[in-house]
Amino acid sequence: MGPGFALLGGCLFLGACAADTVAEAFPEVLIRMLRSYYEHVRLYKSTLLTRFYGTHCIKQAGCPKVRFIIMGNFCCSEYKIHRRFDLKGSSHGRTIDKAEQKIDETTTLKDLDLDYAFRLQRFWYEELMKQIRMDCTFLETQGIMDYSLLLGVHFRSDFSASKIGLSQSISFPKSTGKRKSFEGGDQICEFCIMESGCKDRDLIIDTTRRQMFTEELLRKPLVQLGMNMPAQAERRSKKIFDKFLLNERHLFITTPSGGSRDVYLFFGIIDILQDYDITKKLEHAYKSFQVNPGCISAVDPKLYSRRFQDFIRRVFIKEDQ
């Protein structure tokens, strides 16, 4: 597979886009909600919902039809993604069956595998909670459930990487543009001052430093909601709530158990084409006889939306002022 291509969890990532095979019903759901979806994405520029770019079908002689959707890739970045999580806010079956030493950057972890909480700056935390609320309200009105928050984490230092068992060195963004640089850090080349013909040495030094600072800022990827977001990852221990304490609203709480790590976060809401159809209703009824109904993924859209938002408020926490 060529550079820029990756296959994770059955989804083919093609740089800024991704292609995923889907069931026959999913394109029908997309077409049904297309006008409302378009209006929502147009109105809320910072929406975390998947961007859809096309739905296609391939039919070869003697083979069944293959339907697939082209969508945006939330984790497309110059930063290396060290950990990926698929988070639904449910707990039944939400862990991977894989030994710790076999987990790497290509592994997609689940809710019960998450042992970090992410501390965001106050502004970004409030923006995230507001957008999550609007996106979940939209999905609820469309009768959609079983969606996930796809979360990619880039650890910003080798020290942090060693703490989570990563052997590869951390990669930082590469500059794509050419720019002049001075040897020796922030020392200004005296020859350049002489050649400029300007007698005000301090003015040249100040101007040059401002220019270097501006160029450095331009090299950094744009920070926006769900993309290149700086945060502090705090190691947490997980504790399952007693179902009676939360009126059967499930889940776990996190308590501090270690230091923090500097990270960049990439995330968005995926799998937004599953409606609460007869199949999901039967799944809910069947699994409810086996486990607490609040712990399973297949629940009605209203409960799913409320539970998902509750979980997001546990994963992300606001920076203390």
Concise overview:
With 321 residues, the protein is an alpha+beta fold. It has seven helices and twelve strands. A seven-stranded mixed β-sheet has the order 7-6-9-11-10-8-12.
Strand order of the largest sheet: 7-6-9-11-10-8-12
Provide mean pLDDT, rounded. Answer: 76
What is the chain-wise order of helices and strands? EEEHEEEEEHEHHHEEHHE
Count of DSSP H/I helices: 7
Count of extended strands: 12
Distance between the termini: 47 Å
- Structural classification: alpha+beta
Helix content: 25-40%
Could you give a short account of the major beta sheet? 7 strands, mixed
Low-confidence stretches: 1-5, 158-165, 167-196, 240-255
CA gyration radius, whole angstroms: 23 Å
General form? globular
> In percent, how much strand structure appears in the residues?
25-35%
Protein architecture, described:
This protein has 321 residues and is an alpha+beta fold. It contains 7 helices and 12 strands. It has helices at residues 25-43, 122-141, 158-163, 190-196, 201-219, 278-288, 301-315; strands at residues 5-8, 11-14, 17-21, 52-58, 66-72, 83-87, 108-109, 116-120, 148-155, 229-240, 252-270, 316-318. The chain has a 7-stranded mixed beta sheet. Strands 1-2-3-5-4 form a 5-stranded antiparallel beta sheet, with no helix packed on it. The model is unreliable at 1-5, 158-165, 167-196 and 240-255 (pLDDT under 50).
Write the layout of secondary structure elements.
Blueprint: E1 5-8, E2 11-14, E3 17-21, H1 25-43, E4 52-58, E5 66-72, E6 83-87, E7 108-109, E8 116-120, H2 122-141, E9 148-155, H3 158-163, H4 190-196, H5 201-219, E10 229-240, E11 252-270, H6 278-288, H7 301-315, E12 316-318
Parallel strand pairs: 6-7, 8-12
Antiparallel strand pairs: 1-2, 2-3, 3-5, 4-5, 6-9, 8-10, 9-11, 10-11
